[in-house]
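BUG: 3D viewer hangs when loading the predicted structure for this chain

Environment: internal workstation, default settings.
Expected: structure renders.
Actual: progress bar stalls at 90%.

Input used:
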Amino acid sequence: MNRKPYPTDLSDEQWQLLASMIPPPNQVGRKREVDLREVCNALCYLNRAGCQWRMLPMEFPPWQTVYYYFRRWRDDEWFITLNDGLRREVRRQAGRETEPSAAIIDSQSVKTDEQADSRGFDAGKKIKGRKRHILVDTLGLLLIVVVLTAEIQDRDGAKILFSKIKEQMPRLFLVWADGGYRGKLIEWVSKNCLWLLEIIKRNDDVKGFVILPRRWVVERTFSWLNRNRRLSKDYERKSESSEAWIYFSMSILMLKCLTV
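Structure tokens produced before the viewer hung:
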């Protein structure tokens, strides 16, 4: 790397761990010439700074090259694979089983810009855009994210999320949620996923800010993600790209935890 480093650059230890998980090059076609470490550094910069693709600093590979790898890894679901692998390693180092037995679900509505190919209006939050539905383990590590239009209710979004992940979580049996998930969803989760959905409600008699058991974990995860300006608003045309950036953001956070 013959340039002045950026604060977002991967360290040698982080790159060594990440490089072992990058898909190998194709066996046919032109030989890969680009430095993938610089591609990943560019993605880290874009994620943290929140700039447009075409405003990527000249020290990095051409933005078209960086975008090519982002799109390819997104379509191959490599960002999901990366997140899953790093999460298991973080849990292992924390003395936990690699797969969780309990999780927390929540959603976050964010605005989109005019290029988004799908968006809706969240009447409760008064936000026109998309809604991020995430499920995290008790450490706050991301299990799955589903980005939908903002008008979709939490309960309906939870059904979509649970349907996608129920076959991948053999040990999961308990999910905590807030009051927005109460009602018929509890029975649906018990019947279709064989899990217990436990609603954690706020005590109306308590005034002011109160940390609620378990629910603060997923709120902390949202705060971790929101440190990245790319996620301060949904700037992506496709919801698949929005999900990819969230998985990538969490992966970089876990890389830092594993290389401290």
